[in-house]
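Supplementary Text 2. Reproducibility record for the structural model of the 270-residue chain.

All settings were left at their defaults, and a single model was retained for analysis rather than an ensemble. We include the record here because the model underlies the residue-level annotations in Supplementary Table 4.
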Amino acid sequence: MFGSALLIQVLLATAAFAIPTSKERLAERVARRAARSHLTQPKQLVVHPVSEEQATGNTTHAEFSSNWSGAVLVAGANTFKSVTGTFTIPTPREPSGGSGTHSASAWVGIDGDTCGNAILQTGIDFTVSGSSTSFDAWFEWFPDFAHDFSGITLRAGNSITVSVTATSLTGGTATIVNHSTGQTVSHTFSGQPALCQENAEWIVEDFSEGGGLVPLSNWGTVTFTGVSAGTSSGTANPASATIINMEQNGRVLTSVSTSSSQVSVKYTGP
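Retained model, structure tokens:
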């Protein structure tokens, strides 16, 4: 009897050590980021989406994607030169019934929809693991991986402006301003794979890490305000942009709306 009780105690102790804590899971994700495994992908179109009316009750939603949600302006080559938008960093939550680490990313960019050769982009990741949350500011010129900015602190509720500017087809800048702290970080690119400058976008994404999409967090609503896209002949706004909702496993997870000055991306999943 004593031996059986001792064995049970040993097994319970072993199981406790085998299950990573929320802090350990968060540390694992930070380590993966340090290994440059975060990758934003071009839009992955859902070829056979569920009925739009059934999914959202809104027939204005034009497209569905497994990884993107937001709004995209589409034009001819060499059109879009810059994109900007401001949003409040959300407090990510685990989806209903979910456990472990869940993430999403809000960003602005040039290309990645009708042109998938390259994407110039910058944004903020928001991650939840148990009761812990973390936030990363990053820049990326796809097909390279994302790189984290240093010298900027982030908290839920901070007001953030994200901007990209293409100074040529193969070079440009990515800038993030934290209005809540007064910090600004920027990165200059050169000699990159050529952009088409056909797309300008404001996106909340289920990004790739370690070869697959990360488990998606519930971000509530991210609203990009003060949005605009610089063009070769002036500026454009997202009032007439293509709306993209995220659909995974036959379920629509977002509801997107636009106006001339903002793009709102609401999580509607579990």
